[in-house]
Amino acid sequence: MRDLTLPRDDSSPTLQGKEEKALLLKRLYKSSKNFESKVLNYDIRPGLPYWVSRFLGYRSENESRPIWLLKWMDKFRVPNLLESCLCDFFASFTTILLICTVFSTTSLAKLPIPIVLAPAGAVVISIYGYPLAPVSSPRNVLLGQFWASLVSSIVTKILLDHNTMTVTVERGEMGRNLVWLAACLSLAITIVVQNITRSLHPPGGATAVLGSVSPGIVEIGFKYIGLVMAMVLIILGLALIIQNISRRRYPMYWLSPPKTEAPAKSYDPEKGLAKLKQMVSEMITFLEESDENSEIRSMLAEILEKMK
């Protein structure tokens, strides 16, 4: 059977144009990735005054000392576990107390909803329990909670009517309204959006579900976003203070984890030559003295002699 495939014509203007276009797109993609990496890895903290950069999570190399008010931790050699327990207890208690105070004494108290403490508790556990985890970084906390509250507000606006809504999921009457569907969609879409924007934050799941099943939150609509962000800012503000007055540190980074380049492997020519000589000697010893291997043995012996 005859081969009817046309020969490749590298001089074709159409082919050259496609290759140039592909090369241009490749260069543009590479330059955009480099620009994104520079922006995300840019750190302004080293140039700030010490008392500012410290409470933004910056430390110079090998610095893990507390502020002067807590020098007794070094003096009495307080174990890290005890320090973590004390800081976590004080931080959690103070954070929830401040949120309750703010939500009860400001204009937020006029909203027809209870204090949103379930997501707050989840965020507090995330930040103080895993301060170095990427999901606890300020970027993930802010964006993750924002997307969760936004998605739940949009989904409930589309699916639910706050005038006739009752939370029927607990009663097993799922056919009466679409609360169950709103909760499922809010959580599922939130995870997808967080993955796309690289802002995964597990406590955002509680925010999304709560915003879908609570009648009061459904009633206030998009005000839920401001409520959640106010809560998050209170938590982050206290975390920046409490986590940085002791030997702890928060956050490690703000936008993106710094890329650490792997150290280049040093090559020692003398060690490499010695290893090669050893391999050749082992090959000569391995070959038996016979007519079949005599030529190979003599050739390897010449190579070994030249390496000396």
TrEMBL record:
Keywords: Membrane, Transmembrane, Transmembrane helix. Pfam families: TM_HPP. It comes from Phakopsora pachyrhizi. This is HPP family protein. It comes from the Eukaryota. Residues 83-251 form the HPP transmembrane region domain. Signal peptide: none annotated. The chain crosses the membrane at residues 81-104, 111-130, 180-200, 220-242.
